[in-house]
Amino acid sequence: MILQHLAIIMDGNGRWASAKGKNRTFGHRQGAKVVREITQYCAGQHIKYLTLYAFSTENWLRPKQEVEFLMKLLEHYLQSELEVYQRNNIRFVVIGDIEGLSKKLQKLIRAMQDATAHNTGLTQFLALNYGAKNEIARSVLSLYDRGVFEQAKSLKREQSIDYVIKNIENTLDTREVSAVDLLIRTGGEMRLSNFLLWQCAYAELFFTPTLWPDFGTKELEGILQRFAQRNRRFGGL
Ligand code: FPP
Questions:
Q1: Which positions are annotated as active-site residues?
Q2: Which atom of ligand 1 is nearest to the CA of 212?
Q3: What is the pTM of this model?
């Protein structure tokens, strides 16, 4: 079965660190190492798109100190990972409400996106200040600005719905690949947490109790094998 788009909710950094008697930030630091390992593995497996949930629109509610640490960790990641992306032919793209991030982070994101824009292997979408509701609302606002609803109203009802659906898909942050094939969440919780709600309409879902810092290529390989055995019907028979 073809796996074009894999998405992962990386959960459990804090619990992993607490279980070791360490500060939550220790878990995030370890989590960033796993990001590198899994990204390289996916590039090697010829997966086309990998979307990772690194910071949500709701994560600003965390203690200021933790938010600041995550932002610094992201800055460091963007400054140090370019070589890994180039060596593995990986294109880097951020999805989310980028304008809500610091100017410094925005600049680093743009630099990494520009530097990897011509890479032709894996595309990694890193979700930063991302929320699916925010993404859909931004898409709807841009459709409104472009007069799409006026055009839709001039069509027959069924056509107008298809027209709006197509236009939303074409303006989502992930517009080049709207559907997620496989969504994995680590850390034992079974929820979507406002991640890729539109794109996951027909995604296969896998939940693992493994905390993100303990997740690795072996476990991912097992999940990919189980995914290959799933019977995807997309509402048909
Ligand atoms: C969830 O663990 C993880 C996050 C909110 C952030 C994800 C960040 C990383 C994996 C590291 C940074 C990423 C990059 C790309 C540098 P949690 O803190 O919610 O864990 P808990 O549920 O155990 O509290």
A1: 11, 59
A2: 10
A3: 0.96
Measured in angstroms, how far is the CA atom of residue 217 from the centroid of ligand 1? Answer: 18
pLDDT tens series, the chain, 237 aa = 789 999 999 999 999 999 999 999 999 999 999 999 999 999 999 999 999 999 999 999 999 999 999 999 999 999 999 999 999 999 999 999 999 999 999 999 999 999 999 999 999 999 999 999 999 999 999 999 999 999 999 999 999 999 999 999 999 999 998 799 999 999 999 999 999 999 999 999 999 999 999 999 999 999 999 999 988 787 887
Question: Domains of the chain: which residue ranges?
Answer: 5-130+177-228
Ligand 1 centre distance from Cα of residue 113 (Å): 22
Q: Please check whether residue 12 is in contact with residue 208, taking contact to mean a CB–CB distance below 8 angstroms.
A: no
Distance 9 CA to ligand 1 centre (A): 9
β-pairing, 49-56 with 5-9? parallel
Contact 115, 41 (CB under 8 A): no
Tokens of 191: 């929820």
User: Which of 105, 207, 212 has the most ligand 1 atoms within 8 A of CB, as the residue to mutate?
Assistant: 212
Architecture of domain 5-130+177-228 in this structure: 3-Layer(aba) Sandwich (3.40)
Taking the C-alpha atoms of residue 96 and residue 174, their distance in angstroms, rounded to an integer, is 10
108 CB under 6 A from ligand 1? no
Neighbours of 94 (CB within 10 A): 24
Whether ligand 1 lies within 6 angstroms of the CB of 81 is answered as no
